[in-house]
Amino acid sequence: MQGFVEITIKDLESLLHTEVSRLWSKGLVSVSADSKAKFDREQNCLTKLGMHLKVNDSISRRIDEYGNRSDRDYIWKVIDMIYAQPLGLEDLRVDNEYGVYLRQQGSILPFRLTKVCLRSRLYFFESQSEGIENLKVDAKNLPSVYTKETKNHAGVRALLVQCTKSRKNGSNLCQELLMSEIGDTKFTLDVGNCHVVEATGKPQNSDVHFQVTTTEPYGVLCMQGLKVNCG
Where in 19-68 does DSSP place strands (E)? Predict the structure, then answer.
């Protein structure tokens, strides 16, 4: 009985897959993925914008293991995400521009620090945006103040990437990529030699296989017409 139920479910999955494929081909449905990866038909590759890159993503860059520009691609791996940290009071300087997070607007807006009163510990910020009032706040209630290029409150300020090719001394070069510079840049993902190693059960941990299922997939992925019993 259990095997019969399994086969019936696979028949239903096959019918649904056929119908979704038909609607997809007519442009009536779209595909959404949390990974934010997109398939580039012209280049036949997967791509991601810099703002969507995560730890362990591997990307192609024309930068060699020594940090020099190259005519060929080198694989770099995202090994860490550096989050934006608010500046301390000791970091603020009069006449400098900063990004100040305003809770009412839910965003970081540009301001210039025009005056600091040490006795009353008051900070005066001049708005650089039309329709936004100047700020006068004491040190105790100071909002989050960032460097002026910061775009997102408590967001990722930079990515730390490491070249997978070692240098002659055996070390691997790391570079910090500012999100303000690479956020809208399209990167080609390196997925290596992708092939199926196991169709059922939990995916095996592997550094050389491209995982396209969830952490605990049920059955198999997109194998139309295939019937799999519980055995």
Answer: 38-40, 45-49, 58-63
- 70: pLDDT strictly greater than 80: yes
The whole-model pTM stands at 0.57
Task: Look at residue 51 and tell me whether its pLDDT is greater than 80.
Answer: yes
Whole-number pLDDT of residue 224: 42
Q: Given CATH 2.30.30, say whether it is the number of domain 38-83+155-188.
A: yes
* Closest listed residue to residue 57, CA positions, set 85, 86, 79: 79
18 pLDDT tier (thresholds 50, 70, 90)? confident
Q: Tokens 């070390």 sit at which residue? A: 171
Domain regions of the chain by residue span = 1-35+198-231, 38-83+155-188, 89-147
* Topology alike, domains 38-83+155-188 and 89-147: yes
Rounded Cα gap, residues 7 and 159, in angstroms: 46
What whole-number distance in Å separates Cα of residue 150 and Cα of residue 16? Answer: 45
- Structure token digits, residue 184: 């809208």
Contact 108, 98 (CB under 8 A): no
> How many angstroms separate the most distant Cα atoms in the chain?
82
Q: Does domain 89-147 have CATH number 2.30.30.140?
A: yes
Mean pLDDT of all residues in 101-118: 92
